[in-house]
Amino acid sequence: MGWEALAQWGGDAARIEPLSGGVANDVWTVRVGGRLAVGRLGGRSDADLAWETGLLRYLDREGLTVPVPIPTRDGRLFADGLVVMTHLEGGPPETPADWRRVAGTLRDLHRLTRGWPQRPGWRSSTDLLHADTGTKVDLGAMPAEGVARCRAAWARLAGRPTRVVHGDPNPRNILLTADRVALIDWDEAHVDVPALDLARLPGNAAGLDDVAHDIAAQASAAWEAAVCWDDDYSKRRLAEVRPV
Q1: Inter-axis angle of helices 96-112 and 46-61, to 10 degrees?
Q2: Per CATH, which fold does 2-86 belong to?
Q3: What CATH number was assigned to the domain covering residues 96-239?
Q4: How far is the C-alpha of 110 from the C-alpha of 112, rounded, in Å?
Q5: Where residue 49 falls among pLDDT bands split at 50, 70, 90?
Q6: Nearest C-alpha neighbor of 187 from the set 173, 201, 202, 206
């Protein structure tokens, strides 16, 4: 149906301008009910969108700052692949202190999502010790030696508790103000070992000890290699994963 679905948020709903950063989705600022919002149109399944929108509403209720889904006129949280969410202001983290605030927010996310079900169709890094595919991961497309290196890195996480991870806490997906840290763009969120989020922060902002940081950094590099294979970035990430 495309952007015609926006009419389900009201007769005055309209697109304003495109936003950068969307790879798998078409993302625009929109106006709904007289207020600025963000619309995201993509090809995710209804089950996937139900998982994501349910998570965001829960995190909002628990006090995290996240984009909150705005219902259609008949109460649905998405329609025909379109999700409309609250617009958030702020700037990216810049200083070590900023990144420590981000680490604290990610730990709050992990604390709040004990026992959360896996995103439909996704696998965790430790699931991929035994499975070959999951969402964008297809280990069969990677060289066998690369798969062995990735699995050796993930094996070091085996047995650890899993939580919802944001999956892509880069500066474009973080909006800071003086009093809060907002996490946006939850496309890569799924259930996994929290260390995968914390390893992505520059300067070891999460304060992991040397061994924990090494385990997390290796597992994170292996995950990014597998999920993006085989572009130049994924090959660079695989090169960071030590040989078995």
Answers
A1: 110
A2: Phosphorylase Kinase; domain 1 (3.30.200)
A3: 3.90.1200.10
A4: 5
A5: very high
A6: 173
The number of residues making up the chain comes to 244
Q: How far apart are CA 31 and CA 15, in angstroms?
A: 6
Residue 46 structure tokens? 């209804």
Residue 166: per-residue pLDDT:
98
For position 21, what pLDDT does the model report?
57
Residue boundaries of the structural domains of the chain:
2-86, 96-239
180, amino acid identity? R
Neighbours of 79 (CB within 10 A): 20
For residues 126 and 211, the answer to whether their CB atoms sit within 8 Å is: no
Q: Are 174 and 67 in contact (CB under 8 A)?
A: no
Distance, first Cα to last Cα, the chain: 48
Residue 181 in this model has a pLDDT that exceeds 90: yes
**Distance separating alpha carbons of residues 167 and 187, to the nearest angstrom:** 8
Average pLDDT value for residue range 145-165: 97
Model confidence at 208, pLDDT cuts 50, 70, 90, reads very high
Distance CA(227)–CA(177), nearest Å, equals 31
